[in-house]
């Protein structure tokens, strides 16, 4: 998984210098980038212009978790 700093670095190298995935990987051998991750990020940068994750991506909150938090709040109010 690429950190936020890695994503910004890769985006800058792509936009300013036009680097491809393999060149980026050879420039930073100490970082454990996978070729697929770098290619995916470059494709995302080329199509959207952003290196950030899409808002709303990730695990969804469930209705049950919200209900449990209300139950927990009501129990502590009576203590």
Write up this protein.
The protein is mainly α and 79 residues long. It has 4 helices and no strands. The protein has a domain at 1-50. The mean pLDDT is 82.
Name the average pLDDT.
82
Number of helices: 4
Overall structural class, as computed from helix and strand content, comes to mainly alpha
| Residue runs with pLDDT of under 50 for 5 or more positions | none
Number of strands: 0
List keywords for this structure.
mainly alpha, 65% helix, 79 residues
Task: Summarize the model shown.
The protein is mostly helical and 79 residues long. The protein has helices at 4-17, 21-27, 35-48, 63-78. The mean pLDDT is 82.
Protein topology:
Blueprint: H1 4-17, H2 21-27, H3 35-48, H4 63-78
